[in-house]
Amino acid sequence: MKKAILVMLTFIAGAIPLPGKATFQVDWVSRYVWRGFDLLPDNHPALQPALAIDLGRSGFSLNLWSSFTLAQRGTLRYSDEIDLTLAYKFAMPEGWELSAGFNLYGYWFAEDFSFWDATSQEVFASIARTDLPLSPSLSVYYDLNLGSGLYVSLAVGHEIRMSDQLGMEVGGLIGFNSRQYIDKTGFSHMDLFARLPLALGGLTLVPSINLTVPLLEEVNEETEVWFGFSAAF
Fold first, then answer.
1. What is the 3-state secondary structure (H, E, C) of the chain?
2. 12 falls in which pLDDT band (50, 70, 90)?
C-alpha cells in the first residue's frame, strides 16, 4: 500500500503543472475534537499547522496537516499526527462544487511504529450548492484500515456581514457514523461554530468558538465546548 501511494503521488507530480498557490495555516485549539471524538485525554490543547497547495489548473490540490499536543509531551507525543490529503475538484456548473480524494492519516511517532498499524487510508467525496441559502454540503468518507467504516456529514454555513470589512461565519453539521472506529451505526454528533475572520494584509486571523453535541455515547459521552485561533497566509 505504501509503495502504491508513493507511485501515485510521483505520477501526479510529474503529470500536472507547477503549484498555482500555496497557503500556510497554523491553528491553536483548546481541544482536539474530530468527528465528535475528543482525541486527547484531559481536554489538552493542540497546535495544528497545515500547508495547502493548489496545483494550478489541474484541479488537484495537496494538503499536509498535522496535530501536536501541547501538554504531557512525555507520553502524548506518540499520538502526534501528520496527515496527507490529495483532492480533485471537478469542473461543475455555476453554484455546484464537487470534489473527491484520498486521505492518509499517519501516527508516525507511535511507539513500535509500523505502517499498517499506525496509519489509515480513507477515500472521500463531497458535493455542495453554494448558490442556495446556507450553502449546504454533503461529504462521505470511507476508512479502509484502522477506522474500517463509513462517516457522512451534512453541513451548512452562513456569513453575517457586520460591516464592509467584517463578517461573522456561523454554521454547523450533523454527522452519521457507520462503524468507523465504533461498533454501532447512527447519527453520531452535531457541531456548531462561530468564526470571526480578520484580514490584515496578507495575514488572516480567525478566532472561533465551537460546540460539539454527542448523539452516540460510543463517540463521546460529554458535550464539548472548545475554542480555536487560526493564522493563515
1. CHHHHHHHHHHHHHHCCCCCEEEEEEEEECCCEECCEECCHHHCCEEEEEEEEECHHHCEEEEEEEEEECCCHHHHHHHCEEEEEEEEECCCCCCEEEEEEEEEEECCCCCCCCHHHHEEEEEEEEEEECCCCCCCEEEEEEECCCCCCEEEEEEEEEEEECCCCCEEEEEEEEEEEECCCCCCEEEEEEEEEEECCEEECCEEEEEEEEEEEECCCCCCCCCEEEEEEEEEC
2. very low
